[in-house]
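Quick one, T. Sequence first:
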Amino acid sequence: MRIVLVGPPGAGKGTQAAYLAKNLSIPHISTGDLFRANISQGTDLGKQARAFMDAGRLVPDEVTIGMAKDRMSQSDAVNGFLLDGFPRNVGQAEALDVILKEEGVKLDAVLDLEVPEDEVVKRIAGRRICRNDSAHVFHVTYNPPKAEGVCDACGGELYQRDDDSEETVRTRLEVYHTETEPIIDYYRAQGLVVTISALGKVTEVTERAMEALKSDQG
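Structure tokens:
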């Protein structure tokens, strides 16, 4: 299967992408991983991306598209893939259509993870990270530490990252609504969108997604 995963920040896209890719035996291709791999490997595209990032500028679509095209052409993606974070705007979606058409394949589904905006803010703004080890993550509501502000694992101080503040989250949501959400209508016009609720336990959302994808293919 060839799937695009979309949803607002805090919808759990990364977590669901990993589970779904494993269940479907296809590679999970995320924009973050593409950038890290190309930059660490020193590819031409990676060098271009780094130059823009070092200058504090957005990486142009053509660089991101080039990275995605290269990754989708690799042997493990021949029979399918799950795209997470790409395409992130209609221009990238149109470019993806061209790439797939050239390969003689097409998308099977665009999985839209739906989460109310207030829940997104609650999920992200409630996160607290350990200063000693960023892998230790808590949540004031869903996974609170035993002692407020103290990491259960090492006793380190828990803090809220600047980009997890409510103001920043709402700004990120505005960007999502403006830039990324229009691709849902773009793909809906092609009959590809499958919308599911991303509320509930991780396993429940995964099961919901798998059932929706099966029904869509059926």
